[in-house]
Amino acid sequence: MNVAAILRLKGRGVVTTTKDKSLLDIAKLLEQHGIGCIVIEGDNGKVAGIVSERDLMRAIGQSGPKVLKEPVSDFMTKTVVTAREADPIDRLMSEMTTHRFRHMPVVERGRLMGLVSLGDVVKMRIAEVEMETTATREYAGYCQEEGYHPILPQSMPHTMAGLGTKADQVEGRSDVSY
């Protein structure tokens, strides 16, 4: 599973603004859109930074409410770790864990293509695990119906009584159980 799959499901919409906005403007945008971060675009339309609820709270905690009048450019993360659409989910999980952030812009050829959150990654990973579990259960059910053990080679059908394989019983061995 990769970033493109996440964007196909969640969409590519990203709330952006410019670096001259105040922290109060950022707080209002976060609340208005019900989101956890905003990508800050530079003059050239490229990603210049990113600011999250966490960044906003740190600024207020360090300097008090007067900081809300200051420009976001003074508090945004300027070195932004980005993803590409082809990146596997495992890479995003690793980067987010290592660098301790929850949102990663997706950039292709310098252009912002979307934004992936840790929640998006977890949701996709859970869906992936559920699909694997369903497939495994279906396969195990098929094997049981056909008289085969889902792990042993198909040439060694198991008995429902759990007394080993049919081959073991033919040879007179009933001491093997699985």
Notes on the protein architecture:
The relative contact order is 0.13. 42% of the residues lie in helices and 15% in strands. The chain has a three-stranded mixed β-sheet with strand order 1-2-3. Strands 4-5 form a two-stranded antiparallel ribbon. It contains six helices and five strands. By secondary structure, it is an alpha+beta fold. It is elongated and about 75 Å long. It has helices at 3-10, 23-33, 53-63, 89-99, 118-146, 166-170, and strands spanning 16-18, 37-41, 47-52, 103-108, 111-117. The protein folds into two domains: 3-117, Roll (CBS-domain); 124-170, no CATH class.
List keywords for this structure.
178 residues; alpha+beta; CBS-domain; 5 strands; 42% helix; 15% strand; elongated
Find the CATH superfamily of the largest domain.
CBS-domain
| Structural domain tally | 2
Give the overall average pLDDT: 83
Q: Provide the CATH topology of the largest domain.
A: CBS-domain
CATH architecture of the largest domain: Roll
**The level-1 CATH class of the largest domain:** Alpha Beta
Derived from helix and strand composition plus strand pairing, the structural class reads alpha+beta
Please give the order of strands in the largest beta sheet. Answer: 1-2-3
Q: Choose one word for the global shape.
A: elongated
Q: Roughly what percent helix?
A: 40-55%
- What are the low-pLDDT stretches, counting only 5+ consecutive residues below 50? none
SSE string = HEHEEHHEEHH
Tally of separate helices:
6
- Tell me the number of strands: 5
Computed over alpha carbons, the radius of gyration is: 26 Å
Q: In percent terms, what proportion of residues is strand?
A: 15-25%
For the largest beta-sheet, the strand count, sense and barrel status come to:
3 strands, mixed
Termini distance? 35 Å
